[in-house]
Design goal:
Radius of gyration of chain B: 23 Å
Shape of chain A: globular
Number of strands of chain A: 13
Structural class of chain B: mainly alpha
Oligomer: heterodimer
CATH architecture of chain A: Alpha-Beta Complex
CATH superfamily of chain A: Amidase signature (AS) domain
CATH class of the domain at 5-42 in chain B: Mainly Alpha
Structural class of chain A: alpha+beta
Number of helices of chain A: 17
Largest interface: A-B, 72 and 47 residues
Strand order of the largest sheet of chain B: 1-2
Strand content of chain A: 5-15%
CATH class of chain A: Alpha Beta
């Protein structure tokens, strides 16, 4: 077994346990790296440097007293859709640009209680509506593998931060693919748990019957370590599942011989870019080499996913976002003379174009005379899609395929074509419609851009998915590859990167930006 | 399919959004494209299919109707645009006679 990378969750936790370095040193190194590099990626909206140092010192104290948990002192970044008491929660929107929540999301609270150190809040598409993190009020996120391309979305900030080594792990949310698609585009491991597995309390709602919190990290092992701390029943979330939490870590090493993998033929056809098909096909052969068996399966209603999702999610969004009225919190338009005008102007000036697009579509679908034809019909189609998966999981243990039809696209390419943007989610929305769990795992490259293998599991099968992903990562090293731009600043040979650190990568930050341990070189088989 | 400006304005009114005259064409086109995408599914027969509104459990859990936590009003109102004596201030709703 390969040792975990020194800047991974597992590697940092092991180093802290051995006393190789302190939590404060780790926090300072990541903060210095953010300072030196993030002007290139825009992955953070808010960096909580002082708080991070404080939390790290507390973790070091706990370790001296012998009361530190395994994750104590390991840094984490939170998608800026999770409420954090005392630190602004913007949702990437002008509407909440200065909003400070009065409480912590359950996920934030659980990870803090485990001793993890919060580095800051990561950038996202406005209210998580998007597939490229270009709709953020705080500007677009750039992909560390190619800064002219998108990092995916909506959790693009979390993905770029981990890919660039600006956090070892980040929380994220997935309503239609928002964890898995950026994971695929940035070469990371991203898990979308079963609907209800992770508490939604304090997670600002976009589409309540789809939203689910999860993680972006380098490896399945890292995801397993952190998921164990944040999964579980929460009485403050009425949709939380009251089911025991598996020991994700203990299940990682189980052999996968005999695993039954289903492949959907249409996911390996012309609509998928050749480089993606080849990488994912090779990944499936690796799993076969580990003893898995592969059989074709049919998802009769797979084509129905995108239109159904883009009817239901906007409907729920239009309802959820009606709470933003300029009265109780968030942006209030100045200079209005009536309550009606207060509502209209606060919403019109506070929301960006994609959010308004979805509110309009959702309001239309829910309005009198159209409800049955649109919203009602979409809910019925959702049942057919869920039934499709239910039948498939009677025959197979996991479904494997590409996470996305293409690798990262160029910034700006799909901004004026909402439907083209929505199609980035073609392989991911089915999982949300059916409430299943799925993980995207680095599976190689199409040219110089990462490709993701999506493994979908039945309800509450997170342990199995992480087990399969971990065995795959023991047989491959795609997840160890590092983008050239983001090699630790201290160890980058001159002239190697495209950006000489012109925008903010001053020498002061770079000097302190070496990793906690030896520098891992890009070890991907490129 | 085409959506009229009047239709966009009707929906915008329901959603409490103002659409600038210059944006009406774009918003009408976007809405039409989303609906067209969905209208392609019209041929799928969904008669007799039970609508699915919650993907895992079919019903939401209830809890006993007891007070379990109290709300710190001052903390919650910290982010309010304008408050006075613990109340939210808005423009006048009822006109004086």
């Amino acid at each position: 077994m390969t040792a975990p990378a020194p800047d991974s969750v597992a590697g940092i936790a092991a180093g802290l346990a051995r006393g190789d370095f302190s939590a404060e040193e780790v926090a300072r190194r990541f903060l210095a790296r953010i300072e030196a590099l993030d002007s290139r990626f825009n992955s953070y909206i808010t960096v909580t440097a002082e708080r991070a140092i404080e939390e790290a010192r507390r973790a070091d104290d706990a370790r001296r007293r012998g009361s530190a948990g395994f994750l104590a002192g390991v840094p984490v970044a939170h998608k800026d859709l999770f409420c954090t008491r005392g630190v602004r929660t913007t949702c990437g929107s002008r509407m909440l640009a200065n909003h400070v929540a009065a409480y912590d999301a359950t996920v934030v609270e659980l990870l803090r209680r485990s001793g993890m150190v919060t580095l800051g809040k990561t950038n996202l598409d406005e209210f998580a509506m998007g597939s490229s993190t270009e709709s953020s009020h705080f500007g677009p996120v750039c992909n560390p593998w190619d800064p002219e391309r998108v990092a995916g979305g909506s959790s693009g900030g979390s993905a770029a931060a981990v890919a660039a080594g600006l956090a070892p792990v980040a929380t994220a949310t997935d309503t239609g693919g928002s964890i898995r698609q950026p994971a695929a585009l940035c070469g990371l491991t991203g898990l979308k748990p079963t609907y209800g597995r992770v508490s939604r309390h304090g997670l600002v709602a976009f589409a309540s019957s789809f939203d689910q919190g999860g993680l972006l990290a380098r490896s399945a092992e890292d995801v397993a370590l952190v998921l164990g701390e944040m999964a579980g029943f929460d009485e403050r979330d009425s949709t939380s599942l009251d089911a025991p939490v598996d020991d994700y870590r203990a299940r990682l090493e189980a052999p996968i011989a005999g695993l039954r993998i289903g492949l959907v033929e249409e996911q390996f056809e012309d609509g998928v870019e050749a480089g993606v098909r080849e990488a994912v096909g090779a990944a499936v052969r690796v799993l076969e080499g580990l003893g898995a068996t592969v059989r074709p399966i049919r998802l009769e209603y797979a084509d129905v996913g995108i239109p159904t999702y883009y009817m239901l999610a906007p409907a729920e969004c239009s309802s959820n976002l009606s709470r933003f009225d300029g009265v109780r919190y968030g942006f209030r338009a100045p200079g209005v003379s009536s309550v009606e005008e207060l509502y209209v102007e606060s919403r019109t000036q506070g929301f960006g174009v994609e959010v308004k697009r979805r509110i309009l579509a959702g309001t239309y679908a829910l309005s009198k005379g159209y409800y049955d034809a649109y919203y009602g019909k979409a809910q019925r189609l959702r049942r057919l899609i869920a039934d499709d998966y239910r039948r498939a999981f009677e025959e197979v243990d996991v479904i494997a395929g590409p996470t996305t039809p293409t690798p990262a696209f160029r910034l700006g390419d799909r901004l004026d074509d909402p439907i083209a943007m929505y199609l980035a989610d073609v392989f991911t929305v089915g999982v949300n419609l059916a409430g299943l769990c799925a993980v995207s795992v680095p599976a190689g490259f199409a040219g110089s851009l990462p490709v993701g293998l999506q493994l979908t599991g039945n309800h509450l099968e997170e342990a199995r998915l992480l087990n399969v992903a971990h065995r795959f990562q023991q047989a491959t090293d795609w997840h160890l590859a590092r983008p050239p731009l983001a090699e630790p600043a201290g160890g980058t040979p001159a002239g190697r990167t495209q950006d000489g650190g012109t925008r903010g990568g001053g020498t002061q930050g770079a000097a302190g930006a070496s990793e906690p341990g030896p520098t891992p070189a890009a070890r991907g088989r490129r | 399919m085409s959506i009229s400006h009047a239709e966009v304005e009707r929906v915008a009114r329901l959603a409490r959004l103002r659409i600038d005259p210059g944006e009406l064409d774009d918003r009408a086109r976007d809405l039409a494209r989303i609906l067209e995408l969905f209208d392609r599914l019209a041929a799928i027969d969904t008669r007799g299919v039970e609508p699915l509104s919650h993907p895992v459990a079919e019903s939401q859990r209830l809890r006993p109707d007891t007070v379990t936590e109290s709300v710190d009003r001052a903390a919650l109102q910290q982010g309010a645009p304008e408050i006075e004596d613990g109340m939210y201030v808005v423009p006048r709703v009822i006109e004086p006679r």
